């Protein structure tokens, strides 16, 4: 019984130290975030999900963040860094003008399960439209979807 309690305590201490190191690593390492847009400071493990959870719809939370940080900002969903673009002109620039630079999009687990391992696997028109929201956008993908006809 004492051994189990000791192992549990050691496990909790290791997890807390790991969380502390990961939370402070970027702040004190002197590394620049590069060209990352401004955004809310993420919490360990959950990222910025605590902010989106305060609203009835996540889209309301994204709109409020746009008011605070501008038309383009970054946030972290879990451990996945994301960039949110809100204005039509910026969306056009990101997806069309500079599509090859922004072509790599994260493959979220939820969408992975929804589409059976393939973000572009669509069995109906509704799923086809949904997959457009998660597909990697490049000029090539627009042409292959016949959006420029």
From TrEMBL:
Gene3D superfamilies given in the database record: Cytochrome P450 (1.10.630.10)
Keyword Signal annotated: yes
Signal peptide (UniProt feature, chain positions): 1-23
Protein name: Cytochrome P450
Family matches, as SUPFAM superfamilies: Cytochrome P450
Family named by the database record: Belongs to the cytochrome P450 family.
A Gene Ontology molecular function term of the record: oxidoreductase activity, acting on paired donors, with incorporation or reduction of molecular oxygen
Cross-referenced InterPro entries: Cyt_P450, Cyt_P450_E_grp-I, Cyt_P450_sf
Protein species of origin: Coptotermes formosanus
Lineage, uppermost ranks: Eukaryota, Metazoa, Ecdysozoa, Arthropoda, Hexapoda
Superkingdom in the source lineage: Eukaryota
